[in-house]
Amino acid sequence: MKRAEIHTQKGIMKVDFFEKDAPNTVANFVKLANQGFYNGLTFHRVIPDFVIQGGCPNGTGAGGPGYTIKCELTGENQYHDKGVLSMAHAGRDTGGSQFFICHNRSNTQHLDRNHTCFGKVYEGLEVIDTIRGGDKIEKIVIIEE
Questions:
Q1: Residues 49-83, buried b or exposed e (16+ Cβ, 10 A)?
Q2: What topology does CATH give the domain 2-144?
Q3: What is the number of other CB atoms lying within 10 angstroms of the CB of residue 19?
Q4: What is the pLDDT of residues 74-83, one digit of tens each?
Q5: What is the DSSP letter of 60?
Q6: How much is the pLDDT for 13?
């Protein structure tokens, strides 16, 4: 089982991955994290009561890793709720490195089965609400258990 720690200036968010429901998305995120791709990137898009979004190498929301991955939308855990990590994209099957973390369920239901949910924050949920646009992802640590 893999887990992650997303280290930010505001604290650490600990994540359980949905490996059974989104194996390729989890593998992609783990690969990028282990390569240090996310180190120093910002949460470039922060919308209160909706999401915090990061993973763009140029900080604008238009960048990615240079490739795209397919959406994985049929698993049991494909429901957006507080703390859920999900892939950002510019249309089906165009995700790469950008991800978002949800603030709540009420404003994110329309994303269900449109964006791949691939994990959930189980500790550090309070950090989500303190993140502001421009706050940095210091590093993402992958833990193999």
A1: ebbbbbbbbeeeeebbbeebbebbeebebbebbbb
A2: Cyclophilin (2.40.100)
A3: 16
A4: 999 999 999 9
A5: S
A6: 98
